[in-house]
């Protein structure tokens, strides 16, 4: 088939996803926010979240302008392949920011509505919260497919570029999205945890008042943090992973199949798989239903039914799609897609086992609390370390299986080794696309968590009945597990995507310099880069944690000041100054996010200047491995605690 004229299917998939977004948004907004008190609290949370994102985006915009100007300068001196590269970088960041903003807006509109719907039934509350999550999930995939399709048609029919040039230019679009996601994730994460720690230390521990009590000056900041970190930050993060996986597969496919005349087909396949995933995710979302008084295991099963059904439908549809686009001789690529799908489901399952109260690891950790904080900390650390085994083995198996299934070979003596090796790398790329193909529904179950958490807070602050509070507590507990599961999925998919982008980077560099890089461990530059990359993960984590510590300290001091100086707070006769805590969190997060984010950008550049490209490849390998392990460890230990 002549695939170069069939890329309109990306636009069709984007429109389907965005149509579903508008339907789900309308469904959520038709629901009542409840009492005047509930609407007032929701408005305060929404105002704080909007203020933070506005200031964060204005800060990041300045950095984007500087990078954009540098790229324009490089293009003017002929150092870039195309004049489109700077603009691709800029639009990638803008669309990533838009994804996070849309998700945050619907989340802050759905929190009070979820609390009010829970007054009717548990199932009603679940549906409202999940629908708001679906807006987030399908906005990410819809905007991702839309932007990829627009850029493809500009480069193909406007600039008349060939397949490899289009792939190389569009990878820079993914870099822009990644750059934005870095700041959104770090800044939002610091805000979230600083507000959480500050609110709990003074409110629950020192003052002895319940969580989300309206007398706590930091309670609004805590609820704002759930939205800017776990919704806007996660949306920007997974938008980057989603488009990055598709664009990496574009580049690898163009390189692997260029000589056989199937370059356009190899580029079309990941886009087609993503579109099928959108349609299957929409179908799976209609299966999210539960009964009243459902326990945690049943609620988890409800969400699992939707995600697994979407994955199964995608697996079935991918077989004829692969045959039709690449032909029967390349049907092994389907097995690579299947490996990615299965790996995504498996990572989600094992993350759930280590973070849900329905399973032994978390229950054992809960038993450790009976003997004190020390044993609880030790138990959580050991649980987090142990939980790294399954994701690493799963991702490793997916890499090997997808590489071999797509035609790759581990034997360097093969006559057609170079071609087969490139096709094996393409298999890894489409495996990442397969894992992320059902991102719409997977992200919906993740973004649901902060909405349920906010709903519980609003129910507490509004003084709703015990029955409503018990329902929101059940939804909140489920949200904690889905958030951890979503993080596990994001980490696993990021590892595969990072590997695909890394090999794409090596291909592009070797094509530019016209010689093969020496990437063996006997090369000192590679070895030094490997150590720097491994260290960078720990340094980055330390800097972000120090940022949380400093921001949390300022919140603790402010809450203590208000308890001390504003008479009547504890008696409920005076209202705390919620805005002061939100403002402190905002300033702290924006200040503390700059240095770690710039570290991640500057260190590879400096390493390349001082030690060469081989050292950069070593650095990227080191940071990918240690970053993957550290992320799984922290996410699962935190989810279990």
TrEMBL record:
What keywords are annotated for this sequence in UniProt?
A: Hydrolase, Ion transport, Magnesium, Membrane, Translocase, Transmembrane, Transmembrane helix, Transport
- The answer to whether keyword Transit peptide applies is no
* Record-listed E.C. numbers: 3.6.1.1
The keyword Hydrolase is assigned to this record: yes
Q: Which GO terms describe its cellular component?
A: endomembrane system; membrane
User: Where does the protein end up?
Assistant: Endomembrane system
Residues that span the membrane, as ranges: 6-23, 59-77, 83-107, 128-154, 166-184, 239-257, 263-288, 308-325, 331-350, 392-412, 424-444, 488-506, 526-545, 593-611, 617-637
A Pfam family this protein belongs to? Answer: H_PPase
Q: What is the membrane topology listed in the Swiss-Prot or TrEMBL record?
A: Multi-pass membrane protein
Molecular function (Gene Ontology), one example? diphosphate hydrolysis-driven proton transmembrane transporter activity
Broad class of the protein's primary localization: membrane
Q: Which InterPro entries match?
A: PPase-energised_H-pump (IPR004131)
Spell out the PANTHER family in the cross-references.
K(+)-INSENSITIVE PYROPHOSPHATE-ENERGIZED PROTON PUMP
Name of the molecule in the record = Sodium-translocating pyrophosphatase
Its source organism is: Candidatus Flavonifractor merdipullorum
Q: What is the lineage of its organism?
A: Bacteria, Bacillati, Bacillota, Clostridia, Eubacteriales
């Amino acid at each position: 088939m002549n695939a170069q004229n069939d890329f309109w299917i990306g636009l069709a998939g984007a429109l389907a996803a965005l149509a579903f977004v508008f339907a789900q948004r309308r469904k959520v907004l038709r629901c009542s926010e409840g009492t005047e008190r509930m609407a007032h609290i929701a408005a305060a949370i929404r105002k704080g979240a909007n203020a933070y994102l506005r200031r964060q985006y204005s800060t990041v915009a300045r950095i984007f302008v500087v990078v954009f100007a540098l790229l324009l300068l490089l293009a003017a001196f002929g150092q870039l392949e195309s004049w489109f590269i700077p603009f691709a970088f800029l639009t990638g960041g803008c669309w990533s920011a838009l994804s996070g903003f849309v998700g945050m807006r619907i989340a802050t509109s759905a929190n009070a509505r979820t609390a009010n719907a829970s007054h009717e039934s548990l199932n009603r509350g679940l549906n409202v919260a999940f629908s708001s999550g679906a807006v987030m999930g399908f906005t990410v995939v819809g905007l991702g497919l839309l932007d990829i399709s627009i850029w493809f048609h500009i480069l193909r029919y406007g600039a008349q570029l060939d397949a490899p040039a289009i792939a190389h230019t569009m990878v820079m679009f993914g870099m822009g999205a990644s750059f934005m996601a870095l700041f959104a994730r770090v800044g939002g994460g610091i805000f979230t945890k600083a507000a959480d720690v500050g609110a709990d230390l003074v409110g629950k521990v020192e003052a002895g008042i319940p969580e989300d009590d309206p007398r706590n000056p930091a309670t609004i900041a805590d609820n704002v943090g759930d939205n800017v970190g776990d919704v806007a930050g996660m949306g920007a993060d997974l938008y980057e992973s989603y488009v990055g996986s598709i664009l990496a597969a574009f580049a690898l496919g163009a390189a692997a199949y260029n000589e056989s005349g199937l370059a356009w087909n190899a580029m079309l396949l990941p886009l087609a798989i993503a579109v099928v995933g959108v349609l299957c995710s929409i179908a799976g979302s209609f299966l999210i239903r539960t009964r009243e008084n459902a326990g945690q295991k049943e609620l988890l099963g409800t969400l699992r039914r939707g995600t697994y059904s979407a994955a199964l439908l995608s697996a079935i549809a991918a077989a004829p799609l692969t045959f039709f686009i690449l032909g029967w001789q390349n049907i092994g690529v389907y097995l690579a897609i299947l490996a990615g799908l299965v790996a995504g489901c498996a990572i989600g399952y094992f993350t759930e086992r280590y973070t849900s109260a329905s399973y032994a690891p978390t229950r054992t950790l809960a038993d450790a609390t009976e003997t004190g904080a020390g044993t609880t900390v030790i138990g959580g650390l050991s649980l987090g370390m142990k939980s790294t085994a399954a994701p690493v083995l799963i991702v490793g198996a997916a890499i090997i299986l997808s590489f071999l299934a797509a035609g790759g070979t581990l034997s360097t003596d093969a006559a057609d080794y170079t071609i087969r090796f490139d096709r094996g790398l393409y298999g890894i790329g489409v495996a990442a696309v397969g894992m992320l193909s059902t991102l719409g529904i997977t992200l919906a179950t993740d973004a649901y968590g902060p909405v349920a958490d906010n709903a519980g807070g609003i129910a507490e602050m509004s003084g709703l009945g015990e029955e409503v509070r018990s329902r929101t507590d059940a939804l909140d507990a489920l949200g904690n597990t889905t958030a951890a599961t979503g993080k596990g999925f994001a980490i696993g998919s990021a590892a595969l995507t990072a590997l695909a982008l890394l090999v794409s980077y090596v291909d592009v560099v070797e094509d530019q310099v016209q010689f093969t890089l020496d990437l063996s461990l006997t090369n000192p530059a590679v070895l030094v880069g490997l150590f720097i990359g491994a260290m960078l993960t720990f340094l980055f984590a330390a800097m972000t944690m120090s940022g949380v510590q400093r921001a949390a300290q300022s919140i603790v001091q402010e809450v203590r000041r208000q308890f001390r100086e504003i008479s009547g707070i504890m008696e409920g006769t005076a209202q705390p100054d919620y805005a002061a805590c939100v403002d402190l969190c905002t300033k702290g997060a924006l200040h503390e996010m700059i240095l770690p984010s710039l570290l991640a950008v500057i260190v590879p550049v400096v390493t390349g200047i001082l030690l060469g490209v081989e050292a950069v490849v070593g650095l990227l390998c080191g940071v990918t491995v240690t970053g993957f392990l550290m992320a799984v460890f922290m996410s699962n230990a935190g989810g279990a605690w």
